[in-house]
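Supplementary Methods S3. Input chains for the assembly prediction are listed below.
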Amino acid sequence: QVQLVQSGAEVKKTGTAVKISCKASGYTFTSAGFTWVRQAPGQGLEWMGWISGNYGNTQYAQRLQGRVTMSTDRTTRTAYMELRSLRSDDTAVYFCGRDRGAAGGIDYWGQGTLVTVSS
Amino acid sequence: EIVLTQTPLSLPVTPGEPASISCRASQSLFDSDDGNTYLDWYLQKPGQSPQLLTYTVSHRASGVPDRFSGSGSGTDFTLKISRVEAEDVGVYYCMQRIEFPYTFGQGTRLEMK
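Predicted structure tokens for the full assembly:
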């Protein structure tokens, strides 16, 4: 069965970086991409970006450009999202999702990773 | 970027009654290259990750009960629940995937009366 397992909660200082992992299993890794979404406390879902599962092509939200990098490691079947120069408003739960594009939407999601940023 | 506007933002429903949520896009979500319309619906139950309900307007995701149905075209879309059950409580989001950046609606909170 398809599973996405994310790394654990993080507490970070402002100005530092966080890197979250999303380990996939139960399907052909290169057959789908990954979408990353975050949710600030009490807020809605915010799209952060997308990475293809085969060639590693990326698209990022403009407001995060320059601070975010998404990557994949096919050997370990893991997707990563790194966010740098953290600010207090980056405090959120971060989700990865398997993105099947036209074939089926974002059909499996990780359990979420809480990132708390404080000074 | 494409703006999605959901109505209503809050939806109190009596169990067993139908419910409907609207999502309007600021531009067409129809892709003439492949004939698909890229509008999905997601449900986020309290304390959980989002879950896919329908994709490309009306295709129900695996395991989603048939009381959920998506419809619409172009810029206007609707998610209908034929008979609401207690487990349907949560926040419903529409999302467009026709172009980057993907965007979500503000969310509609469904609660039991």
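Chain A has no helices and eleven strands. The first strand of chain A starts at residue 3 and ends at 6.
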